[in-house]
């Protein structure tokens, strides 16, 4: 438990702008005695100062008053710019009440309010006699002979200060964002060959992609021109020092003296390495100014692999201050709305398999953007070509998502797009394929047996319209051909066998087809109350992955009812529902064919080895709520799921929640007309009315959603007898007790990210408690649940969900 708590605190979560005044006490010489300590407290924030008072060491309180960052900052600047923070790539965030102590044997030690060690400086040899914060901004631990045992200058974060250097093998790491100090995807590295480079890494690993800037200060083994280290001197020069003593300045620019200005060289979260200055004499609200920055244009940096400034599909644009901004192209949106530099996602599904499944081929439109390119996503180059032909070639190619035309050359690109940028020097056109309409995120149904003939009919019509306007004779001949085509289609239609096709365009499969697709029902994906699910591949195009469910019941003499219910399921279209694409109704066999979702179930996502982020969990909760709202109120026929649980919620490629198995409860009950109140749910998620012979309404799903919402919040199963405590084994009871006692931090196991917005955390917990009320009439409808989660409707204090079991 202690180790888990420490790891969670060291996994960096979002910090914020610092707004709380910091109280300090000064030392005349910057020295700190062994035994000295500082407390992370909202009412008593103190720090250790350098002799001049320019720098401070201590806790920077974040906007959330329960979290603090152990750091060094400019004490005389209003915004208290941080230049160093403890534990580098996984910064040590400390809850209120944490302590930092200076000890003789371990140096600087950071502990939680419970006394757990969060971080220490780890001096390897010697005994610490005292610490000293120099006027250079370097905090040094020294022994009795004033020899350095440990110093912040040797433990690099994102910033260099005058007097600091980076030896071979050393690196600066960018932050993840302006307000998130965890490791970002940019590095400044002094390589062993003497070359200073800027490069991206592929998080969460340290795999380095090719550099987008290099000093080229390399040489042969015996060369005296190879670089030895990166230095930052007090005259404002940042340079690579060569073996022969020569200096290679990173940028030829006007120098700024450290005597009159504060100077810092920072690798920003967006990959720009910049030298900044700030006048020491300033008394007003002055901001940092840039002396120079590298590279000159971060958007146009030559990245051949990995990501650039913007995430996948993003487009980088350079601002006037040489800093970049990112935006998503038309038809795409941010995967995380709170991360404007993160990945974008298409608001539709595109690909050869999806195009093949579409009931119509006229599904795309083209948007044109000027001087935009994703240079590392090409898969075909066409030359010589025209702009119109480039557009048409991409439009007709299911692999092509974007085509770039420039200088008689067409570059066709496929997903995912990376390193996008806008550059007026490109003189190019970008043709972007976007699906028509607002409902294109839905997976289209598999083609029915008549689709091929309809396609032929459509082709005849298109040919006819394309040739209108030619000569009278040609039009006469065309009319004859079109009429003949319609006659053949009509005769063929009359002669075909009378085959039943559902109104919802679900495809009817034979048992043999599905047996072949699943390789004899070999690979089992899961099983539940309704049946067993197998992975399959339909031989359409290059192969379409599907999930095939064999229903574990046989309904005699009920083909009409079975198809009626399938029609209802097949007509549901929502981005938070798993799409049913076909079925088999052959003899004793009843099978359903669904789209295949590769990211598995919500259960494996929540209860696996790695805890999902709070943002991911919140998005899942909203997705499930909106999917249930659609089933209850917005689809043509109301559907009660009856078995909402994490195992029946799947995740798509972008970790959006998709509800599975909806509508199957009624299918399962068709042969049990006398037992409509038989329990259909799963232990831990079942609403009390199942046991009380009460009417089954949509409120049973609301109850189950409340339990799932608590699991999403806590990343704990609804019933967990391995917690070691009887009081916390039943999640619903334990969370309510925590809510009443005002200890919601325990509900999320002291996880920092949700605690940064306790208002939202409390709102979500209160909504869940309203959903799990034993009295169905007290539970809100799913529309109200969604509105409460969004903060649109006020959430009142909920009553005890099980008042009768808690009396006495």
Automatic annotation (TrEMBL):
Pfam families tied to this protein: B_lectin, Pkinase, S_locus_glycop
Record family assignment: Belongs to the protein kinase superfamily. Ser/Thr protein kinase family.
Record organism: Rubus argutus (Southern blackberry)
The protein's name in its UniProt record: Receptor-like serine/threonine-protein kinase
Signal peptide positions (record): 1-26
GO cellular component, one term: membrane
Entry's transmembrane regions: 466-490
EGF-like domain span: 295-338
InterPro entries tied to this protein: Bulb-type_lectin_dom, Bulb-type_lectin_dom_sf, EGF, G-type_lectin_kinases/EP1-like, Kinase-like_dom_sf, Prot_kinase_dom, Protein_kinase_ATP_BS, S_locus_glycoprot_dom
Residue span(s) of domain Bulb-type lectin: 33-154
Catalytic activity, as annotated: L-threonyl-[protein] + ATP = O-phospho-L-threonyl-[protein] + ADP + H(+); L-seryl-[protein] + ATP = O-phospho-L-seryl-[protein] + ADP + H(+)
GO biological process, any: recognition of pollen
EC number: 2.7.11.1
Membrane association type: Single-pass type I membrane protein
